[in-house]
Amino acid sequence: MQRLPRLGETAAPDESPLDPTARAEMVRRLFQEHNRALVGFLVARLQSEAEAHDVAQEAYVRLLQLEKASAVSFLRAHLFAIAGNLAIDRIRKRQVRERNSPQEFFEELLTRPGPDHTAMAQEELTLVKDALRELPEKCRRAFMLHIFAGHSVQQIATQMQLTDRMIRHYVARAMAVCRQRLDEANAA
């Protein structure tokens, strides 16, 4: 039976790959000793306890995929590095989603008070309609179903027999085209 290295112990450079049982035991011990600190670290970065637990779990899964025992000496540091990188990825995805929020895009157009704002909103809406007509049918349809019909990405993907990723791509593409047309009109 393979001896289980201690968490701070340095493994020999030519050491063979860890067997799955030993790797799982090391990650279990690491979880017991450091999970509270890891989740606290992630909550501070993500501002969400639920996301912090998700990222921590994903980091442990990645640790279980380690092949060489030489990584054992840096297991805790490796865990926090993995978790930190996963947190950064989550933050970036969240920022992209927020920046491309369709609801935010149309909210200003639809909530402006007064007759002059109504006329401007009508002009902008016409620009958006023209921009949408230039898009391919699937792109336009996905965007319209998401924005105006309020369907979720998953519902649209099922209905159109496409992947969620493709629907998100279509919605983002349509948003970009609409924003571009409005920016061009505002610049002119």
UniProtKB/TrEMBL annotation:
Chain spans, region Disordered: 1-20
Keywords recorded for this protein, A-Z: Sigma factor, Transcription, Transcription regulation
GO molecular function: DNA binding; sigma factor activity
Annotated SUPFAM superfamilies: Sigma2 domain of RNA polymerase sigma factors, Sigma3 and sigma4 domains of RNA polymerase sigma factors
Record keyword DNA repair present: no
Family per similarity comment: Belongs to the sigma-70 factor family. ECF subfamily.
Protein name according to UniProt: RNA polymerase sigma factor
Lineage of origin: Bacteria, Pseudomonadati, Pseudomonadota, Gammaproteobacteria, Nevskiales
